């Protein structure tokens, strides 16, 4: 996703060559991309934390099953 974002921003024409409508269009997409990226990163962080917790939980269950009484 970051690669695609970088490509989009790198391919943007010089603002002095854009019509007001196209400038507005690019600004709208830039905002949308940034918002989407922030939401995506936040969600991935939440999922990552959830899976770390779940993995630790499953690891403890496996240890308890392999070594009962410890």
From TrEMBL:
<keyword id="KW-0493">Microtubule</keyword>
<dbReference type="InterPro" id="IPR004132">
    <property type="entry name" value="KMP11"/>
</dbReference>
<comment type="similarity">
    <text>Belongs to the KMP-11 family.</text>
</comment>
<comment type="subunit">
    <text>Monomer.</text>
</comment>
<feature type="region of interest" description="Disordered">
    <location>
        <begin position="1"/>
        <end position="20"/>
    </location>
</feature>
<feature type="compositionally biased region" description="Basic and acidic residues">
    <location>
        <begin position="9"/>
        <end position="20"/>
    </location>
</feature>
<dbReference type="GO" id="GO:0005874">
    <property type="term" value="C:microtubule"/>
</dbReference>
<dbReference type="GO" id="GO:0008284">
    <property type="term" value="P:positive regulation of cell population proliferation"/>
</dbReference>
<dbReference type="Pfam" id="PF03037">
    <property type="entry name" value="KMP11"/>
</dbReference>
<keyword id="KW-0206">Cytoskeleton</keyword>
<protein>
    <submittedName>
        <fullName>Kinetoplastid membrane protein 11</fullName>
    </submittedName>
</protein>
<dbReference type="GO" id="GO:0006952">
    <property type="term" value="P:defense response"/>
</dbReference>
<keyword id="KW-0963">Cytoplasm</keyword>
């Amino acid at each position: 996703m970051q690669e695609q974002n970088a490509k989009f921003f790198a391919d943007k024409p010089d603002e002095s060559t854009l019509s007001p409508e196209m400038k507005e269009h690019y600004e709208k997409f830039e905002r949308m991309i940034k918002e989407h990226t922030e939401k995506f990163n936040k969600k991935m962080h939440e999922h990552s934390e959830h899976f770390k917790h779940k993995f630790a939980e499953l690891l403890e269950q496996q240890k308890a099953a392999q070594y009962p009484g410890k």
